[in-house]
Design brief:
alpha+beta; 5-stranded antiparallel beta sheet; 10 strands; about 35% helix; globular
Length: about 190
């Protein structure tokens, strides 16, 4: 979206806010309850995303038995499933995250605490967009700042709707992002 608004701003964002990160198998990317300072885009490999029920979350990191998680069976598709068989994982939602997926994009628009844990299940690469430097760079162009504010308002409404329905997580669905972007672009038209 930014690249369509301003080549100069996009170049500045690339220089000031974007880094690449490599993860080895079973390395953590983030933990539930952690304040997100980056938006992550998985560019290579796969992640395991685990979301404990909020009632079970005590603000501490949890260790997982990966052999047990993998023995439960893991579908190759992107669907979320509940892990009900193991009392230790009761109510935990599990999802395989594939390349091209955005994680914690909400951190660009609201103060965001991660809603789950993300671990590499293969060797992975991510592109990290640092929230603070992104915001500072965007503020330099009043036009881009104004246009992104429209997107942000739509994104905040979507976050509130998902939260009220109890389906909020860190995985930013491409369809959701596209519909928000479409609505923001319509707002720009006379």
């Amino acid at each position: 979206f930014v690249e369509h608004l301003s080549d100069v701003t996009m170049q500045r964002v690339s220089e000031n806010a974007v880094t690449e990160q490599a993860l080895a198998d079973r390395d953590p990317l983030f933990f539930q309850g952690e304040l997100a300072s980056n938006v992550e885009v998985l560019t290579r490999g796969s992640l395991l995303y685990l979301q404990r029920p909020q009632s079970d979350f005590e603000g501490k990191q949890r260790t997982y038995d990966f052999e047990k998680l993998e023995s439960v069976g893991f579908e190759e598709d992107d669907d979320t499933e509940l892990l009900e068989d193991d009392p230790e994982l009761q109510g935990t939602r599990r999802r395989k995250v594939v390349a091209g997926t955005f994680l914690a994009e909400s951190a660009l628009w609201v103060k965001w605490r991660c809603m789950g844990d993300a671990y590499a299940i293969t060797n992975c690469s991510t592109i990290s967009l640092a929230v603070g430097p992104f915001a500072e760079t965007i503020k330099r162009s009043s036009y881009v700042h104004c246009q992104l504010a429209r997107y942000a308002a739509r994104a905040q409404s979507q976050i509130q709707r998902l939260h009220s329905r109890g389906v909020l997580n860190d995985i930013w669905d491409k369809g959701r992002a596209s519909s928000i972007l479409d609505a923001a672009v319509r707002d720009m038209l006379p």
